Amino acid sequence: MLEKILTETGGAVEVLTGGLATTVQDYPGRRGYWHVGVPPSGPMDSLAFRLGNRLLDNQEGAAGLEVTLLGPTLQFDHASEVCLAGADCGALIDGRPLAPYLPTQIVRGQTLKLERVRGPGVRAYILFAGGVEVPPYLGSRSTFTLGRFGGLSGRTLATGDLLHLARARPGRRDACTLPVACHPALTHEWRVRVLYGPHGAPDFFTAEDIEEILTATWTVHHHSNRTGVRLMGPKPRWARRDGGDAGLHPSNIHDTPYVVGAIDFTGDMPIILGPDGPSLGGFVCPFVVIAADLWKLGQLAPGDAVRLECVDELAAAHAEQAQDAFVARGGVPREARRIRLRRDGGAILEALQAKGKQPKTVYRRQGDANILIEYGEMVLDLALRLRVHALMLEVERLDLPGIIDVTPGVRSLQVHVDPRVLPLRQLLRTLQDAEDRIGELEHFEIPSRVVWLPLSFADPAVGETIARYMASVRADAPWCPDNIEFIRRINGLASVEEVRRIVFEARYLVLGLGDVYLGAPVAVPLDPRHRLVTTKYNPARTWTPPNVVGIGGAYLCIYGMEGPGGYQLFGRTVQVWNSQGGTGDFREDQPWLLRFFDQIRFFPVTHAELVDWREEFPLGRRRLRIETESFCFSEYQRFLREERSSIEAFQAARQQAFNSERDAWAARNELSGR
After folding, report:
1. Which of 531, 599, 520, 525 is nearest to 565 (CA)?
2. Which terminal Cβ of the chain has fewer Cβ within 10 Å, N or C?
3. How remote is the C-alpha of 413 from its chain's centroid?
4. What is the pLDDT of residues 328-354, one digit of tens each?
5. Which residues pair with 416 in a beta bridge?
6. CB 671 within 8 A of CB 249
7. Residue pLDDT, tens place only, 348-404
8. Angle at Cα 459 formed by Cα 559 and Cα 511, nearest 5°?
């Protein structure tokens, strides 16, 4: 039977050793799910990956293997053809050296061994004629290990695995080679080109900050991976005192969609977001790596030096076109022209002033494939979120060619396109024209489920997370060793029991999904008297367990999976994402639990009870209480008017405590970064 399977496919490869972190990836990865926190994944060095597939005459999207630092040992049960790409890893076929970018025939029984990556660079790729054959998940074969899906059951290769290969396409041309002079240049001193925006000077950073970011030599931190590359270097001075109700640190903003390649200041430390990075978050991003240089993120090694060079839109487009031509035809890649961009307002493409009931609208540059639309002032206003939703519906109705993702934030909407199909300037005009069609939203009404979730307040997972942070990142942070006590203090509450009372009384309206991955909600209490305001970790955590619950700024988040994070934690609940789907409260085609404008309510359980819930809920053995209502904006506004005096009194007391904490931070030099 196995022989029949191998004959009908392209054979199989047995994994003798899996290496350090070897995964199945395809290009361009998983698209269309950014709005619910599913990253694209795919090869981190997409240039090497695409070149390897082209040299084998594969389809560009054929799946292959990504190797990090230490490679696997593979034995072939069938004749095949392979091509290595990326960093040098001392590859051997039955003890004979194998050069990169050179398609090579392998006969049945031969062994391919990849040793430690010698550097420069940290990642190598193994491409096979026909590609690796694994079941696609959400439209891609790429592995997302943090989410535990894609590739081989969402994990790295292990001894004993069997990789099935697809048949090489019939009638393909002969494989070719890539001259050494044309190999992508790897180094320990990198120049990475960026576009200015979406957040710049003078509203977030000072002009001196922006100049220093571009003139500094940054060092790659050892805590770097596929989610993001951390950089060490100068700290910003910042152009504002704090983030207001988005958080205490001036890097904090209301949750906004991110892009792969964004230079995300999580506090004072920049992180270049990678292909497994988050889709939504509450930190400013002054620059985005251009598409043609994203491949370099996959080869940045701890200790490498990085210089950022700001270019204009034409230079970025020219670089991408040159790279596409190089991949398609080979030859020496052309160098894109290097143009420095004036930074006086360059992060903003256009701005429309408020008129009537239409708020101010700002169109921000977000790399070379996205526009970020922001409404109103930098305050928490549900009217702005409703307008974001109305614009999202209008963009979906237009069904424009070239649209990849449409992702809402709290007061922003990100439109991600293929600029080769839909140029950004054309998209900008379309978005501006759409504003007049949105209309009035005073009587906006939308279905709103009330979803009751079990919550273990002060769960042991919270303490473990803080302890790890103190041991590996920062021990002297103002929110350590007790996040709940910090929440109490910064909000001026009399006791931790008051924090608990508010958490269980509140109705949290879901404004976004994918806040730190996989259907994780960013939600805000409907009653302003339940809005506890905190700051986010600075620097951010490198590890957070799945389904812990926290507050950042005025927003609540349930972490969808294990990963980084910055919210102040107070408990843990059940899964909001189920990769299996089709069980209990999860639909077969929709592995995320919550929807935009759902209302989250918590009910208390003990840690032991939550353990049972977490075991049985994904299997459909326990069901949630879910009630169907609607959210009517006019009725909500009437509630705010009726409770105005009580709300203002609560907000004044909270602001006084917030200011006291801010002043204490300033006295300890927590805010200046200097």
Report:
1. 520
2. N
3. 15
4. 987 655 555 555 554 445 899 999 999
5. 370, 405
6. yes
7. 999 999 988 889 999 999 999 999 999 999 888 999 999 999 999 999 999 999 999
8. 30
